[in-house]
Amino acid sequence: MYGVSLKIVFAMVVVLAPSDLSLAQSSATYHQIEGRVQSRGHQLRNIHVRLTRDGRAITETFTNSEGHFVFKSLLEGDYLVETAETDEFEATSTSTSVQPIDKQHPTPNIQIVLVDLPVKAAAKKLPPRVVAADVDLDVPKGALKRYLAGVEALDTGDASRAISEFQAAIAIYSQYYAARLELGKELRLQKRFAEAETALQPLGKIAPDKPEPRIEYGIVLLELRRREEATRELSAALELEESNWATHLYLGWALLETEQNLGERHFKRALELDERKAARAHIALARIAEEKGQRQVALKHLDDYLMLAPNASDAEAVRKLSDRLRK
Question: What's the number of domains the chain is made of?
Fold first, then answer.
């Protein structure tokens, strides 16, 4: 998102699209795993799923709104489909074997995998997406109805309807914290940054003690290239909660051009808190190291990023950048 286009040496990371591997170049037969995670009554999109073989990570992906995931271009063999522990679910590990139907005349095969996500005991006591009880104290029934309709639309993957419902909820009750936060997130994901700013900006007064809306607002300000304002919002979020990886990551991006040493510390802290989620910090740290003449350090960060996110949208560009730096 940020950092990769800030200097010419890293420009190729964002301008080069990942290239598809041509199966025609190999005589090997490739297979596919199609799967679905399931847990009644819980949101199933963006569940992190990893594929391993013999204890080694092969690839990873995230589920769509219906809990589906796909792993392509696999050689035959035994695999483990793993989901990580979250605040809501226990970790899982599901074994599967990918084999051609006819080994004498192997052809591509699709293996179906179902993964039941065990809900943590504490999570079972809480309904999904609880409205912020300490903020949304006087929400009119009409606004709540539209908000819940928006949540339902999100859970079915209908972002356009969700945005409309959240906007309707806010039109009824302009101080609706939960609706503004969800609306701002969805507008940001749709790259409608000016609208996201309008939705999120009032939250600083509606809920001044909550870090999450400040983080979201800070990210939007970064997208709008308003780095000083983003720095203020993210610094305020950091004072409210130091242990959030996202705050450190985006604050690092905000400071990268003006206070690189401070930005570097925030990138490293983000990785300490959650290396997988903050994986893109490795790209920024690679840029910083390369500018300092520490090419081997830069290469290590690029390699770490590719290990954490081998199928990211910019992974192929990062590989090419790494190859370039090795020459």
Answer: 1
